[in-house]
Amino acid sequence: MDQKRIDSSLSRRELLVAGVGWAAWGATPRGAGAADEPPRYGGILTQDTFADAPHFDLHQSETIAALLPLAPCYNRLVQYDPFDSTRIVPDLAERWEISQDGRLYTFHLRRGVKFHHGKPFKAEDVRASWDRIIDPPKGVFSVRKLIFDAVSGIETPDDHTVRFVLKRPMASLLANIGQGWNVIFPKDVLDAKGDMKRDVVGTGPFKLKQYVRGVSLEVEKYPDYHVKGRPYLDGVKTFVIPDLNTAVNAYIAGQLLLHEATTESQAEQARLRVGSRGVIARLTQMSALTMEMNATRKPWSDPRVRQAASMAIDRKEAVDVMTDGAGEPSGMMLSTGPWALPAAELQKLPGYALDKAAERARARKLLAEAGFPNGFKATMIVRRGQQFESAAVLLKDQLGQVGIDVNLEIHETAAFYDKTRKRDFELYGGSYSTAVDDPDAIFGQNYLCNAGRNYSAMCVPEVEKLFLEQSQIRDPKARLPVVHQLQRVALQNVMKAVLGFRVTFYLYAGVVRNYRPHYSRYLSESREQVWLARG
Amino acid sequence: MSRYLLRRLIATVPVLIAVSMIVFVIMRVAPGDVAQMLLSGESGSVASAQEVRQLRQQLGLDRPYHVQYLTFLAGVARLDPGTSLWTNEPVMVELGRRIPVTLELAVLAVVISWTIALPTGVLSAVFQDTWIDYVFRVFSVAGLALPAFWTGTLLVLLLAQQFHWMPPLGYVSPTDNPRLNLQQFIWPALIIGYATAAILSRITRSSVLEVLREDYVRTAHAKGLHGAMVVGRHVLKNALAPVLTLSAVQMGNLLGGAVISETIFTLPGVGRFLVDAILHRDYPVVQTIVILFAVVVIALNLITDLLYAWFDPRTRYA
Known about the structure:
The complex is a heterodimer. Chain A is of the alpha+beta class. Helices cover 29% and strands 24% of the residues of chain A. In chain A, strands 1, 12, 13, 14, 15, 16, 17 and 18 form an eight-stranded mixed sheet that branches. In chain A, helix 8 (303-312) packs antiparallel against helix 11 (356-369), helix 9 runs antiparallel to helix 12 (386-400) and helix 15 (461-471) runs antiparallel to helix 16. Helix content of chain B is 77%, strand content 0%. Chain B is built from twelve helices and no strands. Chains A and B meet through helix 6, helix 13 and strand 17 of A and helix 2, helix 3, helix 5, helix 7 and helix 11 of B.
């Protein structure tokens, strides 16, 4: 993306944060408006999501369509600082201690907290919630339980203390507890109902006001919220708008004050129409674009073939096509985050060389060594959708340059998921998102032998070993070299051909204050600190 | 007449059973299932194969196909086709919320389409091969050529980007606030109504032209009746039968148009519900809506046939 072009076309009130990710957010202003402006109470924040949530049980959900409208109703034990996603700060736990051996986390809970149905919040609620995340009862599907594999149990010595007992140290425990999904439900409602699919009862700054299926979910200020003076807003209304164009137009027309995660062209359209009345934030997202190669099928089980395929791809070009020129080539970890391999290191690995012609010549040689001097034919399944289809066409072209003749098969989402789950594919161009930019989350969900999204069925013992090793090092400085080595091994084995991370654009009206988007939408959407200036 | 009606009603039963079987088979043949979708997020799922299996079992999708089909059919017969696999709500409750939305959209669209089609079609015929005819023909050809999703998107774009206005988000019932409700419905109804009017206008034109050449019309003119009176009293009534038939057939297209318009204009109607249900593989919902659409189309065709007698007294039902 031509950064200068965009920056030079901005007016003073239009804040366009360019190429800012994980570490740099702390240095950016807290939304639009003067820093010394006193917060104003009142107003309804309007935002949108692309679909209706199938149910309200966040422990069993994995879609932003559920998290975005419901997050304002809940608290977690710890949370990400709404202004700095590098920091974990208290939420329902006011403080915590970690034992010397890193196997015991003791959380001291806030007092005087009440659920929306009036019951006081106690340690038993934390235990009931976390028990179902870690070890869900029959009929409950905890989609993130594997992340907390290291936790052996939860103890509640008294009403205001909770202990997480671990089988082994887990450096990312707090970061993962802070994910937006891991909210605390009231034990009595869980006991009575078995799940929270139809109930919204939390301790959060807002409580459910009205839900009209397929239309909107509205929450209103919870007057007994335990943080004095919060929230500032009277409510948050989330509209269900399946069509992206309609959502952007609703933002332009002033019906939405906030529209998250849109494309560059849509953002540009909004900028032209809304001008100084709006703000655009550009953010590298925790969503990696990849090409998966099914290692259970020949010839993809041969590492030389996978390496050749990876070497055929010009990542800069691929990411430009996939993200309208807004993405950045990278390895496994978020390119703007603290765990990313430096560019100089990446360039030594298969697929990342700057001299693409020379690397493609080496790729053809590798294919010849693997028994394919004249290349071979392969089929790539593609998820229906402009972003996936254009990426697939590009990958087909690039693989063709080393002799891999790719036939594209387009499937709509349900059929595509079915094929990937059954590993009924040779190649596919896809993506994966994780809530947290932490090796435990990214490798634990995508690269380990038993990882849920290890669709390529790659199992590399050294990756397993390094994963466990880094996971137990609590000092980030000591952990970093092991994480780098973990990435090198995974990239050498081409477990997935990672192309880069998506960049998306957040649009919000100039009156929205104290709003800060993060590298992941699954971290903090509570809107507790957001307020609206006079329009 | 009543024997005819009874015979037609009996004939709908095998048609509806055939429709239900076809949609059941198509949905089962399509890869992917709701259990997988429920356990997936924006970029796939981390759920294990065992968890997907357990959820399938919980949802009753592991039962033999014939059991699933017969259970569904028995439910339809009791007007209780089961529970949505996606939302876990009774399908009839879900439909009950959405039918009024689509019905309102359909009625408005039909009113708009007839309001446009009849005058333009008749005027085109009466002033055949004059500039009036050419203008209305271009107008109707444009309506046929422009797909609803394109005109809908363009309209939203125009309203938002040029006038910084859009129909209000959400859904307001006509009983709560008729003005807001009209603001929400008039635009999608115009899009669908125009597309439907285009074909109706052409049929009206050719039908009126045909009747205008009839002897009794010539006689009416010879008797000194005013042109407008001839068209209004003698031509139009006899020319409307094919227009009416086509209107009933167009109902199917109108429901198809509703799918797109409801998505673009964020109306929570049956069309959008159907699209979501197909994408989620929500079998009971898809099966019920397809059967409902079939019932609507059959009923409209039956009503049209019955109305023939009113328009053309020569029509007899045996």
